[in-house]
Amino acid sequence: MPPLLAVEKLEAGYGPINVLHGISLTVEPGEIVAMIGANGAGKTTTLMCLSGVVKARGGRVVFDGRDLTAEKVPAHQVVRLGLAQSPEGRKIFPRLTVLENLQMGAFTRTDADGVAADVEKAFTMFPILRERQHQAGGLLSGGQQQMLAIARALMSRPKLLLLDEPSLGLAPQIVVQIFDVIRELNRQGMSVLLVEQNARMALKVAHRGYVLETGRVTFSDRAAALLDDPRIRAAYLGE
Amino acid sequence: MTPLLAADPAAAFGQFLLIGLVSGLLYALIALGYTMVYGIVELINFAHGDLFMLGCLLSLEVCLLVGARTQAEAGTAAGVAAVALMLVAAPVFCAALNIAVDRAVYRPLRTAPKLAPLVSAIGVSFVFMGVGLFWKGATDVTFPDLLGPPIPPDAVNAAPPVPANLLEGTGLRFTFKDLMVVLVTIPTMAALTVFVRYTTLGKAMRATAQNPTAAQLMGINVDRVIAATFAIGGALAGVGSVVYSLYFNTVNYQMGFQNGVYAFTAAVLGGIGNIPGAVLGGIVIGVVKTLGGAYIGSEWSEALIFAILVVILIFRPNGLLGARTREKV
Ligand SMILES: Nc1ncnc2c1ncn2[C@@H]1O[C@H](COP(=O)(O)OP(=O)(O)OP(=O)(O)O)[C@@H](O)[C@H]1O
Ligand SMILES: [Mg+2]
């Protein structure tokens, strides 16, 4: 089977500065792939590039058989192809209700019944969202906002879910809960590209991992192998 | 002081309040265009008042085209046709023009520093004024009083009849024209509120205003949503231009500046970016302007408006409704 996502020599940046200097990675169907790296390594830029929000300056992004870079697929079309993102910092719509936030996640869909059923699924997955469904998104706690961000991304029924730092700033038991959800989603068949500062948790849940340093992939291996690699342990696992 | 004021102060106050409310609804309609555009692209669209002016000139053109040139046509087939036609033509024209300007001028500057589109908006304002000057000349042009009382055919040279008072016996004066302002502006604003709150496009507008990047990640075409916002703001200015022209019966190429300033002030007063705020701000401006004009002197009403703006912004920097911005677009 061809990879669900194949990134080849991706280059991107902001203004005169290049941030990504030729990133290559793949995600196979059904995989969780972790991407770890220090602050400023270019992880968020990579994900934004995949979502079409940041324009690629070189290289290719092939998703589900479609060459997004060659076809110049605009950001608002990427979701329709099955690539959804829960962004860094959650980016909840603060003055839309929780329910409206979820509906925005299904913006590209026209099957009202299917959307309603998926809202129900989201509420089953995160019961707190059901309780708060008529509250403004901005009034949720950080952990609740993270749940909403993930649920919102799932509302488009993606083939690949991009998660940018879902554990950022959350209490340890919430982080465990979020990672349980990621594992469960994957068990149900969802492919995930997971960006994390919390390298240990990420590599434990992932099948494979990539290490990014200043816009380049410096290591890539099975997650278990990366967890055992002394260089990774020293640089990213605090040992 | 006006004679009315001396005769019956309480009734006079009520009357000025009523006039203020009616004109405030007009400012509100224009203010909505400022506030919606600001809410979504953080641009003070200085050309908005002049867009309103062009809507007024177009409405006049419609009258001339249909043959409704004077008050004599009020109530005739030509008069009714002119009003109906301009209520369609002016909003469509202003919406189309606003979209075109966004596409040609503001969109290329979307990622530029905020000052660039702002200065461009001032430029567009001057271009619009130039167009208005070229179109209808530099002097005031009378706009046919098509909502005034119909003139009987045998009385063409007599003094025009006095419009009927719909509130006869209450001590207040409220004519068919006043009623028309209320009947057009309030349903328009109600429709806008329902649209923004409940429709998919309305929600997409609010989402885009609150976080454009996240909106893109949801598959929202942000450029399209912004264009729609300019279209709606323009259409509201178009509706406003028709009502204004029929109400005040004078138009000229400079009218966009002053009314634009009032409307913009109304938007800031209510909390820029906030839809109910713009309506409230418009009404406050209308009332203050009318009461100020009546009790202090019309030469002071502008100074008064800005004094109140300053005071309110000192105590509520985000405007009257700016703090609890649930319905901010
Ligand atoms: N909008 C932007 N404009 C200019 N430079 C940016 C922008 N966003 C990121 N950068 C720069 O690009 C580089 C990579 O940033 P990026 O956010 O992709 O890193 P990251 O790996 O996600 O870091 P973190 O772990 O802190 O989230 C950094 O040097 C950053 O300063
Ligand atoms: Mg990041």
Description:
The complex is a heterodimer of chains A (239) and B (329). Chain A is of the alpha/beta class. Chain A has helices spanning 43-50, 75-78, 98-105, 112-125, 127-131, 142-154, 172-187, 199-205, 223-228, 230-236; strands at residues 5-14, 17-27, 32-37, 58-63, 66-67, 83-86, 160-164, 191-196, 208-213, 216-222. In chain A, the strands form two sheets. Chain A has a six-stranded mixed beta sheet, with helices on both faces. Chain A has a four-stranded antiparallel beta sheet with strand order 2-1-4-5, covered by helices on one side. Chain A is globular. In chain A, 46% of the residues are buried. In chain B, strands 1-2 form a two-stranded antiparallel ribbon. Residues 324-329 of chain B have low confidence and may be disordered. The interface between A and B is medium-sized, with 29 and 21 residues. The structure holds adenosine-5'-triphosphate and magnesium ion.
List the helices and strands and how they pair.
The complex is a heterodimer of chains A (239) and B (329).
Chain A: E1 5-14, E2 17-27, E3 32-37, H1 43-50, E4 58-63, E5 66-67, H2 75-78, E6 83-86, H3 98-105, H4 112-125, H5 127-131, H6 142-154, E7 160-164, H7 172-187, E8 191-196, H8 199-205, E9 208-213, E10 216-222, H9 223-228, H10 230-236
Parallel strand pairs in A: 3-8, 3-9, 6-7, 7-8
Antiparallel strand pairs in A: 1-2, 1-4, 4-5, 9-10
Helix pairs in contact in A: 3-6
Chain B: H1 3-7, H2 9-41, H3 48-66, H4 77-106, H5 115-136, E1 141-142, H6 176-198, H7 200-210, H8 212-217, H9 222-248, E2 250-251, H10 255-270, H11 275-297, H12 301-315
Antiparallel strand pairs in B: 1-2
The structure holds adenosine-5'-triphosphate and magnesium ion.
Magnesium ion binds next to α1 of chain A.
